[in-house]
Amino acid sequence: MSHPPTVQSPRTGKSALRRFVDAAEPWFYSAPVLVLILAVMLVPLILGLSYAFRDIQLLNPFSGGFVGLKHLQALSQDQAFYRALRNTLWWTGASVFLQFLFGLILALLLDKPFAGRGIAQALVFLPWAVPTFLAGLNWAWLFNPVIGPLPHWMAALGILSAPDNILADPHLAMWGPIIANVWWGIPFFAITLLAALQAIPRDLYEAAEIDGAGPLQRFVSITLPFLAPTIAITILLRTVWIANFADLIIVMTNGGPADRTQIVASYIFTQAFRRLDFGYASAIALVLLVLLLAYSMVIVIIRQRLIEKD
Amino acid sequence: MASIALSRVGKSFGTVSVLNEVDLAIEDGEFIVLVGPSGCGKSTLLRMIAGLEEITTGTLTIDGERVNERRPKDRDIAMVFQSYALYPHMSVADNMSYSLRLRRRSKEIIAQAVSAASAKLGLDPYLERRPKALSGGQRQRVAMGRAIVRKPKAFLFDEPLSNLDARLREQMRAEIKRMHGELGATSVYVTHDQIEAMTLASRIVAMNAGAVQQIGAPLDLYDRPANLFVAGFIGSPGMNFLEGRCEQGADTSAVVLPKGFRLPLPLRIPAADGEKVTLGIRPEHVTVDAQQGEIEAAVELVEPTGLGVILHLLVHGEPFKLFSTDRALIRSGARLRIGLPRERLHLFDQAGNRMAAL
Ligand SMILES: Nc1ncnc2c1ncn2[C@@H]1O[C@H](COP(=O)(O)OP(=O)(O)O)[C@@H](O)[C@H]1O
Ligand SMILES: [Mg+2]
After folding, report:
1. Which of ligand 1's atoms lies nearest the C-alpha of B38?
2. Which ligand has an atom closest to residue B45 CA?
3. Parallel, antiparallel, or unpaired: how do β-strands B154-158 and B77-80 relate?
4. Homologous superfamily in CATH for domain B4-233
5. Which of A74, A121, B30, B305 is deepest in the core (most CB within 10 A)?
6. Measured between CA atoms, how close is B198 to chain A, in angstroms?
């Protein structure tokens, strides 16, 4: 494949304009998409972040000025924010762990053949199909001793001393949204883990069985290594998502009682839409964004390390 | 080392019966090859011996003990899978030592067993690699190594070579044979490839449609196939069959082929006059003889194999194969006269079973 001798070297004899046009050509073709992406993704993000450095209060017509780091300074002194941060850890950790645990158990059960498995697999999806605020309302009613059975059952089982509403109990309130969240989030883990389970070659289990491995050893040396990448990515996604997920809390407890169920996301919601202080709310959102980005980076790096080690 | 015995063993999946009444006694140190077309139930039978499939009817004994209900890990057998089934997250060494580690053998014993096996299989340079960084042939060796480190009572192989290319398959075949010679372990080997069966087996079990057709030494099956199925399955290129009717004479019989061609036999065969019989002859036993050849044949196609030549002929309009090492035969479109040496003929009755030998 040699060039015909008559063709000149492409660089010589080209004007500067010509070269610029050549270089810019691909950018012109992709410009519509790039502009769209910038407009849809970056502009709102930057606008939102800029609020963090401005005084924006919806009810104050004189607000809107640039205030620098004032919001962040206020935030560093804000005990309610620190409590929300701790609650977020608690809410996210417990929800993700329980969703994952029950999702995994459910996936393992659904992986075994039994009569009616197809229907069971379809039913597992059901909570996922319920709008979150409806799920929140439902669970709030279930926990309400006046109309819901749960407090009475729990009292009968001895878990509660009296059939009270746990959503009104400062020490137990967080469990209400967590339980609702676990119920609602199990299908996600169950379905993704089931898909990963079904991709494991059956003969590996047979080989291990012949090699003398019991059910637990087969789970540890075959199932877990196969599931690990799926587990890592689903937990990462769910953690970020649940840390931002205030719907159930807003509907069920609205952050109460006494801010005991206030997570950062619901705190932002409260600041923005109840106090109407958009500037301060944006500053909190900025901090949450940075924290979640840092968390994601750490997980991505760990995952990369693990893949390289393989 | 162990003997394995199957007695009237059957298997059904739900209402579908895939194996019926298999009787087989495998002696200590034998190399048994189960051979048959795809779907005839070879793997199912092997998996029942391994304990991976339940035995629907009959009994399976290992060393005289009934093991029908025993779990795979308590049967002390090793199995090599067609897909190799190597643990992808373990190194080669860990793959091989997994069963010993589960049995909590000491580190020294494990290291010794693994290094002995890897030396035997030429796996020393790959012990730290993961299976996915190995070629097909190396993976195959690891699967074998995993089986031999355990020193099990018996080895089971399910088409272990069918994912390899032809050259490697030949090489591994010889290696398996050599290893069986060294270890002398009882082995049951499943294949659909009759060459593998012929070369490896001390005894072949030919199967078709869930039933055992014949059990015997490789050359027994080749020389004296019990029925049409075995006759057609063993040997490559496959045996030629000519259908005809028996014509009984005073002391001898003859077979009359459809076009009226009469083939006298040197003795009397146990068939009624006019009964349908099938003549079989292997392509390598057909002779070409311009003068004395009794049947005229047209050459349709010539396949040179290097060693010799396979001629696809038309005999009375029926396809017929001939194998010869005579290269002079390599010319298409010719007409030949072929001979059917009587001592090479196989005769099968109406039901397809072998008749008394010629
Ligand atoms: N789990 C199963 N359920 C139903 N039928 C099966 C199952 N496993 C195998 N079979 C059937 O049993 C027959 C024998 O299968 P197999 O032993 O795998 O054949 P081979 O190994 O000789 O090719 C086939 O017809 C196959 O469809
Ligand atoms: Mg098979």
Report:
1. 23
2. 1
3. parallel
4. P-loop containing nucleotide triphosphate hydrolases (3.40.50.300)
5. B30
6. 27
